[in-house]
Amino acid sequence: MNAATLRDLLAAAVQRLAEISETPRLDAELLLAAALERPRGHLHAWPERVPEPDRATRFLAWLDRRQAGEPVAYLLGRREFWSLELEVTPDTLIPRSETELLVELALERLPADRTRALADLGTGSGAIALALAVERPRARIVATDHDSTALAVARRNARRLNIGNVEFREGDWCAPLAGERFDLLIANPPYVAATDPHWRRGDLRFEPAAALVAGEDGLDALRSIVAQAPACLRTGGWLLLEHGYDQGDAVPNLLRQRGFVDVSDHRDAAQLSRASAGRWPA
């Protein structure tokens, strides 16, 4: 394989990954392009080229790990979210495209011409907070996480992207916000039920369980956030939450029971229930 062309390497890789990945071609191209330190377009422009042996060896080592289920984002140490290239590590959840819905919902509630205070709870790699910071540079943003290693990743992402309007604080959900009031709280908390076998399979096996699993019904973290949020929201402030596709009734009910108004549930690009919003009343 070390003497194979780029076309041959890709074809063999796609065949190997077909059984474990929903996107075997994309995975193979991302890994090969990264091993070559070239853009993906290079693979299509020069398919007959034979890569240097050390590059091919790096690609094949990554391919073995990917075939064993390790996510591409962890192999490469990066993932794109909201057009931002973010560092990710096994200490952080891998940002997913469906979470961009939360960013869209927040931007609808944050006028660009006004200064607003908002907090991203359980920030992980910092994806949501940094996306909002780029879109709303006048906003004051606090990003919290109970995991110091995840916060370190988020801080590095902010420095590398030269984003200065995000403050990072260690602590559980709203605890680091005590005594302050915000116009908007946003969170993508763990929401997988402990009884759901899927989080022990495939790519999810490699992600931090604490960022995925939340009690027997998957609602423990969501309950905590809904309970804590009013103490940190200004009158008329919003709480935005990502949740599981099957929690589109349960989460809005939690919000209503806590006293939130204008409660709504929102679907992602796949038309699956994905996020809920509620406003703290006057």
Task: Return residue spans where pLDDT drops below 50 for at least 5 consecutive residues.
Answer: none
What would CATH call the class of the largest domain? Alpha Beta
The CATH homologous superfamily of the largest domain corresponds to Vaccinia Virus protein VP39
Count of extended strands: 9
- Please work out how many helical segments DSSP would assign: 10
The share of residues in helices is: 25-40%
Q: Can you give the mean pLDDT?
A: 92
Overall description:
This protein has two domains: 6-68, Helicase, Ruva Protein, domain 3 (Orthogonal Bundle), CATH 1.10.8; 91-279, Rossmann fold (3-Layer(aba) Sandwich), CATH 3.40.50. The model has no long low-confidence stretch (mean pLDDT 92). 35% of the residues lie in helices and 19% in strands. The strands form two sheets. It has a seven-stranded mixed β-sheet with strand order 5-4-3-6-7-9-8, with helices on both faces. A two-stranded antiparallel ribbon has the order 1-2. α8 links the parallel β4 (140-145) and β5 (166-170). It starts with 5 loop residues before the first helix and ends with a strand. It has helices at 6-17, 24-36, 41-45, 53-67, 72-76, 100-108, 127-135, 148-160, 220-228, 250-258, and strands at residues 78-81, 84-87, 117-121, 140-145, 166-170, 182-187, 233-242, 261-267, 273-279. The longest helix has 15 residues, at 53-67. By secondary structure, the chain is of the alpha/beta class.
